[in-house]
Specification:
Order of helices and strands: EEHHH
Number of strands: 2
Structural class: mainly alpha
Shape: elongated
Bound molecules: zinc ion
Strand content: under 5%
Length: 118
């Protein structure tokens, strides 16, 4: 799914589904990443305050919060992309025309071989 940490392949190497299914598709991943990063920042801020209370070391707490705010979006980026793709597939299931014909042929064969449900 990914060429490297920050770059998603244009198409899935297994099924051929485009990673950018519609223009601006990545905005949803940015939204997930923002929500998650602010959540982590809030947790770090609350835990840091709780751990240092009542003698708050504000510069240290700000430094830790800054590090969390800077690193979390970078570390969570591929996960936010995968999550957004999964949500999008839940809302708009992939059409056969979006998939590699070799993959859909494999799926059809697998479906025919599956035992009937009781
Ligand atoms: Zn795929």
């Amino acid at each position: 799914m990914f060429a490297h940490w920050f770059k998603m392949n244009e198409r899935c190497t297994t099924c051929g589904l485009a990673s950018e299914r519609v223009e601006g598709h990545f905005v949803g991943a940015v939204g997930f990443n923002t929500i998650f990063s602010f959540g982590v920042l809030l947790i770090v801020l609350l835990l840091g305050t709780w751990a240092m209370f009542p003698d708050l070391n504000v510069p240290l707490l700000l430094g830790i919060c800054f590090a969390a705010a800077a690193l979390t979006p970078l570390l969570f980026w591929p996960f936010s992309q995968s999550l957004w793709q999964a949500f999008d597939l839940g809302w708009r299931p992939a059409q056969e025309s979006e998939l590699d014909p070799r993959y859909t042929a494999t799926l059809a064969t697998a479906t025919r071989r599956a035992p009937a449900a009781p």
